[in-house]
Specification:
16% of the residues lie in helices and 31% in strands. The protein is of the alpha+beta class and 606 residues long.
Length: 606
């Protein structure tokens, strides 16, 4: 009893690779000894003697002379992603004083392809420049200034970084040079097709470059063709262009012990659950979710004198987050469509399986079926389970909305019913069981606080076990991040319940808890959590009629729930969570002996 008093006191996760492979890269700067200035790439006015000039008419030219050697390592600047024949890359590069051996022209390694992909991804953020003066790190005194000026202002095949720099001293590979050369060749081809002619020297330089980088250009184009074929095949054989499949499989091994646990129901169990979410988006901002679920976990035995449930409006004291109803009966456990309405409003249409915390946040970081605690009570404030999904009819059909007033203030509200699909008497959307709720969520900095109100009516078996029953619930939930890895929080809820049977009953229901959590402990992505709280109990029960009355409902004791768990990720797709739960006075009465249960949950996500 002393430990109970002490505990009570503490409470109060390559598609663009195909496009990236043709990305721009840099070209060698001064490629001919005779072109000591950028005049080799100068566009001249149209003259009669050049009208008949074409690439085919140019005789082969010997290998490029000094100062640039074809085997030299070139320092180049990354450039932006190629937009066909328009957006191109820096061409001029610094020539190192000591040449190094270039990769073989026939290199087709995956590493080289990866370099081009990384290079292109970086270049995707670059901006086309129209004047060399836009490049803040290029000066008239630079040895490549005239060549850069020609390429920028006459051919338009130079791009700079968003910060206005060219970064001409960066190193690049021959594959990057080939990609940039290809961009400039495309640009010159456009000029020729449009009737804008270039000089014989320009064409001779182009031919030398084509010959020098023929192997690299062929390799890049071949890989692009192969990737385009793969993309086409994927598009033709993919499951859906709008729908993604996300799955979650739970394996659980555990057991329960206690003096009052029936001896024939205390063996180790192995239970499981599978969820398949089909998420469809039609606009990129909306989501239609259809969930298939099946499992065989049915919960721990509830022997005589051990009423682990708190009543029809709440989950049981030993219920787990992966409850499934058992029997591996496949069902559509969730059907919802959500969509934005303007910039601040999100609308939720709940066709099946909807709950309060599906529309508004539960605040608790432990509300996670993959990496959270084992039990439902330790995951979030029980106020979010008032009505929906836990009553005889399951109030999970309806709608709701959230309105964001800036980054730190949100208003959410909704309405759910258990008989929205039934046109009979005392049924339908508005004449049967229902749950109406509203919530204000404040997020100033590292603190998040939610103020929640719920009004529910149950015509079947209500909180007290009698029917009908109505509840007004008032709750507050909070979470505070003390640091990047340490957080604390908790909740408190008060409920006023009225039951109407052959007599009239009123009761007060209380629940509260506190928790601490440490993330990234020992391994990245892990969570160590401790939750100590009191599941819903009757703090007061008054009988105002002469009808049926069960004195046991007037609970003077309450259960203490203490749960410790540690969740860690074995990989991006596998998470293991061992946990243990200690229930003192289960069933909200000290006549029951304490119960300890727990196990190991493994979740496979895909």
């Amino acid at each position: 009893m002393l430990s109970k008093v002490l505990l009570k006191s503490l409470l109060v996760t390559p598609a663009v690779l195909g496009a990236a492979l043709v990305a721009n890269a840099s070209i060698a700067a001064d490629l001919s000894a005779s072109a000591k200035s950028a005049d080799a790439l100068t566009v001249t006015a149209k003259t009669p003697e050049l009208e008949s000039v074409s690439l085919d008419a140019i005789a082969p030219v010997e290998a490029i002379a000094a100062p640039v050697e074809t085997s030299a390592e070139l320092a180049l600047s990354p450039v932006e992603e190629v937009a066909p024949a328009v957006e191109t890359a820096p061409i001029i590069a610094e020539v190192p004083t000591q040449p190094v051996q270039a990769p073989a022209a026939t290199t087709t390694s995956v590493d080289a392809l990866s370099q081009v992909a990384e290079y292109s991804a970086e270049g995707a953020s670059m901006a086309q420049v129209t004047s060399v003066s836009q490049l803040s790190d290029v000066f008239p005194t630079d040895w490549a200034f005239q060549a850069l000026q020609s390429l920028v202002e006459r051919y338009g095949c130079i791009a700079g970084y968003p910060d206005g720099t060219f970064r001409g001293r960066n190193f690049a590979t021959r594959y990057e040079l080939a990609a940039a050369l290809n961009a400039c060749l495309d640009r010159i081809s456009e000029l020729l097709a449009a009737g804008d002619f270039v000089t014989r020297e320009d064409l001779a330089t182009i031919q030398r470059l084509q010959e020098e980088f023929a192997a690299e250009l062929a390799t890049l184009r071949g890989r692009v063709d192969a990737l385009e074929a793969r993309v086409t095949e994927l598009e033709e054989n993919q499951f859906s262009t709008t729908t993604k499949l996300r799955g979650e499989t739970n394996f659980y091994i555990g057991g329960i012990t206690g003096d009052d646990v029936p001896s024939d129901n205390d063996e180790i169990i192995f239970a499981s659950r599978v969820r398949l979410n089909f998420d469809t988006s039609f606009t990129g901002e909306d989501r239609l979710r259809a969930r298939l679920q099946a499992g065989n976990y049915t919960g721990w035995p509830r022997g005589s004198g051990l009423p682990y449930d708190s009543g029809g409006f709440f989950v049981g004291q030993t219920d787990h987050q992966f409850d499934s109803g058992g029997g591996y009966a496949v069902s559509i456990s969730r059907l919802e469509y959500r969509f934005p309405l303007g910039d601040a409003v999100t609308v939720y249409i709940e066709a099946n399986g909807g709950a309060i915390s599906d529309i508004v946040t539960s605040v608790s970081p432990f509300d996670d079926t993959v990496a959270g605690p084992l039990t439902t009570f330790a995951a979030y404030n029980p106020i979010y389970d008032v009505g929906p999904g836990n009553t005889a009819t399951g109030q999970n059909i309806g709608a709701g909305a959230t309105i964001d007033f800036g980054d730190s203030f949100q208003l959410g509200f909704g309405y759910l019913t258990g008989r929205g699909n039934d046109p009979g008497d005392d049924s339908g959307l508005f004449n049967g069981d229902y749950t109406a709720f509203g919530q204000l969520t404040l997020s100033p900095g590292d603190l998040t606080v939610a103020l929640t109100y719920v009004n529910a009516y149950e015509g079947g078996v209500g909180v007290s076990g009698f029917a009908p029953t109505s509840v007004n619930a008032y709750g507050v939930s909070a979470n505070f991040g003390l640091s990047d890895s340490f957080f604390v929080g908790g909740w408190f809820t008060y409920m006023d319940q009225d039951a109407f049977s052959s007599g009239s009953y009123e009761s007060e229901i209380w629940t509260y808890a506190g928790y601490i959590g440490i993330s990234d402990l020992l391994t990245e992505g892990s969570t160590l959590g401790l939750v100590v709280g009191v599941p819903p109990y009757f703090g007061d029960f008054d009988d105002f009629g002469s009808g049926i009355y069960d004195p046991a409902l007037a609970v003077q004791d309450n259960t203490i729930h203490a749960e410790l768990f540690y969740s860690f990720a074995v990989s991006d797709n596998i998470t293991i969570t061992p946990g243990v739960v200690w229930l003192m006075d289960p069933g909200n009465t000290d006549a029951n002996e304490d119960v300890v249960f727990g196990g190991i949950r493994t979740v496979f996500s895909f």
